[in-house]
Amino acid sequence: MNFLGKLFFFLSSNSPAFLIWGIFQYRCNKLVSLNLLIISCFSYLGMFLLFFLAKRRQPKELFDVRIEGNVNSKMMEYMVSYILPFISLDSINSLETTIALCVYYIVLFGVYLKSDIFYINPILNIAGFNIFKITHKEDKIEKSAFIITRSNSYEIQSNKQFSILEKNIFIYERK
Predict the structure, then answer these.
(1) Treating both helix axes as pointing N-terminal to C-terminal, what angle do 74-87 and 15-26 enclose, rounded to 10 degrees?
(2) What percent of the chain is modeled with pLDDT above 90?
(3) What is the pTM of this model?
């Protein structure tokens, strides 16, 4: 996935925090509030456009798929990043706070890119998707990957076609 795709996933995953920030900003700075709302909306559209495009690409057949675990529980750990910026702020509406939050989200985005955790996205969870860590065989080598799906783990079948979102992240749909 290219930089723009990862940016859409990052922005959409943090959009609830942006909306909270926008609510705090609304009374004092409507322009910042409106921009945060626009960023949130465009990030949703971009993320779901990436899903749509991934489903139109040539699918890949995965063999010997084994579910290793459900990654949905990681969402709660990620949600801590929503709360931290707002805990000790004296005035959420100050210029200093706005700059500090921008720096915080830039650093968080850097970590997000380096850690390759863009599949951990609460918006996907809210939209009904599950994320599973799997192993599968490719050229007789066992590889780890993730599957994003609306299915339950017992519904995911081996030797089926999976849409490729990223080199080790696939989308599975029941047919």
Answers:
(1) 20
(2) 1
(3) 0.75
* CA–CA gap between residue 94 and residue 69 (Å, rounded): 43
Rounded Cα–Cα distance for residues 10 and 121 (Å): 8
Mean pLDDT of 137-162: 81
Q: What is the DSSP string of the chain?
A: --HHHHHHHHHHHTHHHHHHHHHHHHTT-HHHHHHHHHHHHHHHHHHHHHHHHHHHSPPEEEEEEEEEEE-TTHHHHHHHHHHHHHHT-S-TTSHHHHHHHHHHHHHHHHHHHHHT-TT--HHHHHTT-EEEEEEEEETTEEEEEEEEESS-GGG--SSEEEEEEETTEEEE---
Bridge partners for 137 per DSSP? 63, 142
